[in-house]
């Protein structure tokens, strides 16, 4: 199988996205519908907040969990540089970090997230646009890929050559703290020579 590769996926992204969409349309129409839904949600947010654009740095935040993988930390640093994201870090847990974010930046209304309905906390989301619960700091959660399957995520990552954390190549499918996160045993493979690999 020939794998499409782009060493600079952050350059000319709109044209690349449209090319990817066309490549996928004939074989995976439901996936393309999910892509379109995610894109439409992002358009709505950008229409609501027009001050953001290509030349404006994205404001991001990272809530630090205890015992974080160094690979995850490095990935965040690399992505922030590559995509012009200004990342502010807050101590965890999540609720505490969000409270500090709102104290320091009360103008933050919407938070773009990568949650999916099949994620542990994503299963409680009823919509891809949803306010936090009353006992949480008030932010609008924007989850454009909420309805995506695991397969959809990887189709987009691979098809658009979007960089991802190296831990996924090591057999991890869900990341938390190092002491509580294990490799997915379903991805474990032992070669004839006894070498363990994760696919």
Automatic annotation (TrEMBL):
From which organism does this entry originate? Strongylus vulgaris (Blood worm)
Q: Please tell me whether the keyword Nucleus is annotated for this protein.
A: no
Which Gene3D superfamilies has this protein been placed in? Answer: HUPs (3.40.50.620)
InterPro entries for this protein:
PAPS_reduct_dom, Rossmann-like_a/b/a_fold
Which key words are in the record?
A: ATP-binding, FAD, Flavoprotein, FMN, Nucleotide-binding, Nucleotidyltransferase, Transferase
Enzyme class of the recorded protein, top EC level: transferase
Which Pfam family is one of this chain's hits? PAPS_reduct
Task: Describe the reaction catalysed, as an equation.
Answer: FMN + ATP + H(+) = FAD + diphosphate
- Please report the stretch or stretches of sequence annotated as the Phosphoadenosine phosphosulphate reductase domain: 108-181
Q: What is this protein called?
A: FAD synthase
Task: List the SUPFAM superfamilies hit by this protein, alphabetically.
Answer: Adenine nucleotide alpha hydrolases-like
* Pathway entry: Cofactor biosynthesis; FAD biosynthesis; FAD from FMN: step 1/1
E.C. number: 2.7.7.2
Biological processes, Gene Ontology terms: FAD biosynthetic process
Q: Which GO terms describe its molecular function?
A: ATP binding; FMN adenylyltransferase activity
Lineage of producing organism = Eukaryota, Metazoa, Ecdysozoa, Nematoda, Chromadorea
């Amino acid at each position: 199988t020939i794998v499409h590769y782009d060493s600079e996926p952050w350059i000319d992204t709109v044209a690349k996205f449209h090319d990817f969409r066309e490549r996928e349309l004939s074989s995976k129409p439901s996936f393309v519908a999910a892509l379109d839904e995610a894109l439409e949600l992002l358009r709505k947010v950008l229409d609501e907040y027009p001050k953001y654009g290509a030349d404006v740095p994205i404001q991001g935040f990272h809530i630090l969990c205890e015992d974080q993988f160094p690979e995850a930390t490095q990935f965040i640093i690399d992505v922030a540089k590559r995509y012009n994201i200004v990342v502010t870090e807050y101590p965890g847990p999540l609720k505490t970090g969000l409270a500090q974010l709102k104290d320091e930046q009360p103008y933050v209304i919407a938070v773009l997230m990568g949650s999916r309905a099949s994620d542990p906390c994503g299963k409680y989301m009823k919509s891809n646009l949803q306010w936090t619960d009353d006992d949480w700091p008030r932010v609008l959660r924007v989850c454009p890929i909420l309805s995506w399957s695991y397969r959809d995520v990887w189709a987009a990552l691979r098809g658009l050559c979007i960089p991802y954390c190296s831990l996924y190549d090591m057999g991890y499918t869900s990341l938390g703290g190092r002491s509580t996160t294990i490799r997915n045993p379903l991805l474990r493979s032992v070669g004839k020579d006894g070498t363990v690999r994760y696919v």
